[in-house]
Amino acid sequence: MILDTFIGRYDGAQLEAKSVRKSYSREYKVQAAEMVLDGGQSVPEVCAALGLGPTALRRWVEQVRQERAGKVPAGA
Q1: Cα separation of 57 and 36, whole Å?
Q2: Rounded to two decimals, what is the model's pTM?
Q3: 45 part of a folded domain
Q4: Short-list 36, 67, 30, 59, CA closest to 49
Q5: Considering the domain boundaries, does residue 25 fall inside one?
Q6: Considering only CA atoms, which of 69, 32, 75, 71 is closest in space to residue 50?
Q7: 61 touches 36 (CB < 8 A)
């Protein structure tokens, strides 16, 4: 019985600990990428200013670069 109570609490804690992935509009992603490409700011600077993760921002920057070069990035 004590074990059941512990497992129930543990499972609940795990559910609460899971994070929800944020979603950003296309316009937001392009503006953030342009801060790096056109604004002369570094990826860490933009991440700190906007509260973004570096992996996501680097992906957005690369997608904008490819679009500017006339290529359509995968998954677009």
Answers
A1: 9
A2: 0.69
A3: yes
A4: 36
A5: yes
A6: 32
A7: yes
